[in-house]
Amino acid sequence: MFEAAVFYAFGAVLLAAGVAVITARNPVHGVLFLVLAFFTAAALWLLLNAEFLAITLVVVYVGAVMVLFLFVVMMLDINLERVREGFWRNLPLALVVGGVMVWEMITILAFRYFGVAPRQVPPDYSNTRELGRVLYTDYVLAFEVAAVILLVAIVAAIALTLRRRKDSRHQDPSQQVRARRAERVRLVSMPAEKGE
């Protein structure tokens, strides 16, 4: 009973944070509400005994992606009026997508209560081990393709943003190795100064 109450409390916070993400007038506030939504979703994963997925959600999304979003939003000068222009134009499609998602959630909950009981797992069951087994056996090709695509995206992002500045000084090791003392140092013989 207590676990169900905590689950519904976290679910209410998650729904409120999700609504606040899309209704926040300030983009920074929207990103912070999204961080709250991710933390609450991680808490729900913990309640469902999926510890690995909960920690992955916090580390990957909150620790990396959302920090990047927050810095980008804070550094860019966003014209809020221009962002709000397409709200009413995109509202019908957004309502359709939201309705489909609500229908899916209701179907899942109804199936859980009125459908087939969930599969019973043995006491030594580990969802992390099971996830790794499925990922590296059944979906190993898709996993490797996704890794290659991400690597290509990282290299492309670096190549697109790399600009060589003409006014910056840099070292050329090959030129340094070929240097000779006669080219760099000149000994000058000067007479000693005489004090008065």
Model description:
This protein is mainly α and 196 residues long. The chain has three domains: 1-85, Four Helix Bundle (Hemerythrin (Met), subunit A) (Up-down Bundle); 87-117; 127-159. It is 73% helix and 0% strand. The radius of gyration is 29 Å and the shape is elongated.
Total domain modules:
3
| CATH topology value of the largest domain | Four Helix Bundle (Hemerythrin (Met), subunit A)
* Share of helical residues: over 70%
Elements, N to C (H/E): HHHHHHHHH
What portion of residues belong to β-strands? Answer: under 5%
Output the number of helix runs: 9
Q: List low-confidence stretches.
A: none
Give the end-to-end Cα distance, rounded to a whole number of Å. 103 Å
Specify the biggest β-sheet. none
Could you say what the CATH architecture of the largest domain is?
A: Up-down Bundle
Radius of gyration from the alpha-carbon trace, in angstroms: 29 Å
Identify the CATH class of the largest domain: Mainly Alpha
CATH superfamily assignment of the largest domain? Answer: NADH-ubiquinone/plastoquinone oxidoreductase chain 6, subunit NuoJ
The gross shape turns out to be elongated
The overall average pLDDT, rounded, is 80
In short:
The chain is an all-alpha fold and 196 residues long. It has helices spanning 2-23, 27-47, 51-75, 80-84, 87-114, 127-137, 140-161, 173-177, 181-184. Helix 1 packs antiparallel against helix 2 (27-47).
